[in-house]
Amino acid sequence: MEKQNKRKESVYREIGNIDELRLYRGEKILATAKDLSGKNLDPRISPYLGIDLFYTYYFPIPSTDETSPEDDEEEAFRRTVISTLLKTESAWKTKIYTSADSVTSIVAAASFIEKLNKLLPPNQGGDKGKEGNSQNESDNEGNNSQELQNAIQKASESAMKDAEMAKEVKMLAEKMGAGKGSIFSLEGSAEEILKLARETDVARILEKIEGLKMITNAKTKNTINYSKGWISGIEIGGDIERVHYSQLAFPSLLFYAEFANDRLLLYEKNLPSNKGPIYVLLDKSGSMVGSKIDWARAVAVALFKKAMDEGRNFFVRFFDSVPYQPMNVKSNAKASDILNVLSYLARIKAGGGTDITRAISSAVDDMDKTKTSSKDKPSDIVLITDGEDRLSPEIINKLLKKSNSRLHSVMIQGHNAFLQQISYRYLSVKKLEQKEALEVADFS
Questions:
Q1: Contacts within 8 Å (CB) and 24+ apart, 29-33
Q2: pLDDT digits over 149-191, tens only?
Q3: Which CATH architecture has domain 278-441?
């Protein structure tokens, strides 16, 4: 009983005894691996292995404790896995994406365990005392040892691929939250990030987004000054609520003198001007297959970033001959919302007909139901299509007027005279490149 309750130690000197908090993280890693594999894990895979794998990826240069275990099968197996893993080239390459990054370290550990669980050779634990089997036991142990090494090698390579893509997904999510005055906690979303990292369509979206420089901390153009808004710069004045921390180092007499003369260094703070949502209508008809829909999805992400920067709600809806279920994200988006948008964009495939009038009507209804559109809050509907549809300008004009919305029509390698007639902006995209994508999102 004493041995069972004894707290186990990590293979790493820096960690020592594995406390309850670290053990909880190890259990979460195992739960993620189990969910992904869809079956139970090998009994030799423990939460202690999960936490040691986490630190294998998290520490830039991990240093193992060479103390040998005393008849502890779990610890012996764990040390074998970690020591073998550290000898693989792929484990060290993975550190480019995981060092000092808890999210990608969790992803890499869970990915490794999932793959290892599929490849582990059976545990040859019993029958050691039988006579005449010593040679066979020796051969079996040698074979199992080689199989285990091969399994660890393949699991390490799988973890490297997943960690690379997960790092890109994580960086995109962080950029989406930049400037919002809070830090997104993505560690709890590691499983969602790993699933997205394995999506081929997500990889294509990220490839298209990579060149969009606008997904950085560009200052919002349309803002109003507000003392409790987001920090956007530095200015001189006397507003004590916004005083820069450096001014607190002044002797009290100098501080009060600067305050009296409105010469304190202040944080400049503002809020976006009062606007309704950005609503993206994305054509998924059969003619949009391939690079068209990939480019359109990347533009939708750029518009999502714009909405978050400007403190506006965001809608996105795919449509063909019928409108599909929309996604609505409020201006104070959380990490899970950002990942959900990426997942939503990735899972829709091109196919079907086109009904633009019905799509715009659905967008107006959505904004009306959620009370995000009013005369005081002009909205922007961005329609991305190749334009292969007839429509009624009169009906669409009434809908736009009803919702106080401006229609931005983005024609991908096509033309629609009806849309050109009624659009606030009409953009004809010939090449599906960065310049055109930035032009779509560059409006005030």
A1: 29/53, 29/54, 29/106, 29/109, 29/110, 29/113, 30/110, 30/113, 32/106, 32/110, 32/190, 32/191, 32/194, 33/110, 33/111, 33/113, 33/114, 33/117
A2: 999 999 999 999 999 999 989 888 877 764 443 445 677 888 8
A3: 3-Layer(aba) Sandwich (3.40)
